[in-house]
Amino acid sequence: MAGTETFWHLDTFPTRDAAEAAKTKRGTVLEALGKIWLLTIEDASWRASAGEHVTTIGPLPITPGVFAAQYMEAIFNPGMTAAEHTHSGPEAWYTLAGETCLETPSGKQVGRAGGPPVIVPGGPPMHLTATGTEVRRALVLILHDANKPATTLHHEWTPKGLCKS
Questions:
Q1: Which of these, 27, 106, 104, 103, lies nearest to 71 by C-alpha position?
Q2: 97-127 confidence digits (pLDDT tens)
Q3: What is the mean pLDDT of the chain?
Q4: Nearest-angstrom CA–CA distance, 84 and 97
Q5: C-alpha distances in Å from residue 140, one per residue of 2, 64, 105, 137, 160
Q6: Are 87 and 153 contacting, i.e. CB atoms less than 8 angstroms apart?
Q7: HEC assignment per residue over the chain
Q8: Which pLDDT score is estimated for 63?
Q9: Sign, Cα dihedral of 25, 152, 114, 136
Q10: Distance separating alpha carbons of residues 81 and 84, to the nearest angstrom
Q11: Mean pLDDT of 18-31
């Protein structure tokens, strides 16, 4: 995708077969959070040939190279945290319910259902906390360097506690 910006497209389908029929080489079909999703990495103008377009997230801050997409269904109860870690490429998430606060050395971002997506470049250490009172349900993308691990635990940085209420 040289010369274009990279985006994450999220589309839903009534059946897995319908999603598979619309999938391109940069797409992945998965069942998560009670829906059938087609998740695709493409430029901003790309659209699936069918299905319901949910959102487009990006641009994703990548450097030229070979990337692999790791998708996750994230369900966190309020107060749950993830250990401090880094990614070898950007992480983005689309929140369907609840909220999550992300702290990095440069500050904090909060992802909420109905709010803007969270996009974090690869490299800086981060700490996630499910905030609010509702269970956080989100789809997560780590678009990582294919020659490096997607996630590495990070022990040299201590969060300041920016996500505590």
A1: 27
A2: 999 999 999 999 999 998 998 999 999 999 9
A3: 92
A4: 23
A5: 24, 22, 21, 10, 24
A6: no
A7: CCCCCCEEEEEEECCHHHHHHHCCCCEEEEEECCEEEEEEEECCCCCCCCCEEEEEECCCCCCCCCEEEEEEEEEECCCCEEEEEEECCCEEEEEEECEEEEEECCEEEEEECCCCCEEECCCCCEEEEEECCCCEEEEEEEEEECCCCCEEECCCCCCCCCCCC
A8: 79
A9: positive
A10: 9
A11: 97
CA–CA dist 94, 57 (Å, integer): 8
Q: Which amino acid would we find at residue 115? A: G
b (16+ CB within 10 A) / e for 31-50: ebeebbbbbbbbeeeeebee
CB 50 within 8 A of CB 22: yes
Given a cut of 60, whether residue 96 has pLDDT beyond it is yes
Mean pLDDT score, 45-58: 96
120-151 tens-digit pLDDT:
999 999 999 999 899 999 999 999 989 999 99
